[in-house]
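REQUEST ID: PR-0412
SUBMITTED BY: lab tech R.K.
PRIORITY: routine
TASK: structure prediction, single protein chain
INPUT:
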Amino acid sequence: MLNPSTEVINLKEAAKILGGIQIVTGAMHIGFGVILGVMNSSYTMVWGFASLSFISGYTFWGGLSFIISGALSISASKVFSPCLLRGSLGMNVVSAIFACIGVILLLVDMSINRLPQQDYYALLSGKGISAMLMIFSLLEFCITCVSAHFASRAIPYTNTAVVIIPTVYANPSTSAPSSAPFTNDGQQAYITMP
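STATUS: complete
OUTPUT:
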């Protein structure tokens, strides 16, 4: 069995690396989404590449969720607080769901575009970009599942003891003894007003 401190260090390092990959994948989704949007236009009775993933906005909200989950994974590995770990876990689950939806949308993109009025080069490059985005979505699904697993394994290591310091308030209308601390000579550290 591994030492818990060694296991925590390994989880922190893996979360940093996987979070960086998630951020890069999210940025690539947004960049290729812009290209799919440019190819979506039609001109002089010739249609471009009709991308359902662009029309639904997957390339943007999927990429943004991948960037957010990667940033949360990196910040949770640096600070290692239970709140950040739970946030990273939740966002990784959401990103995994978005990646599954994206794979379905990108498969539809590659299968519905076969009209004779479409520009051949827009069709060819659109299918290529959709195939590449589908590979990145599958990669993102795998990474988010692994990151969520690491976050769920790291949450038990964040249970730390909480020190509670009681606060005593004195009522000035009563002549009760003061709760002020004493100095070394037995006198009160500060004088309370009646």
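NOTES: The mean pLDDT is 81.
REVIEWED BY: pending
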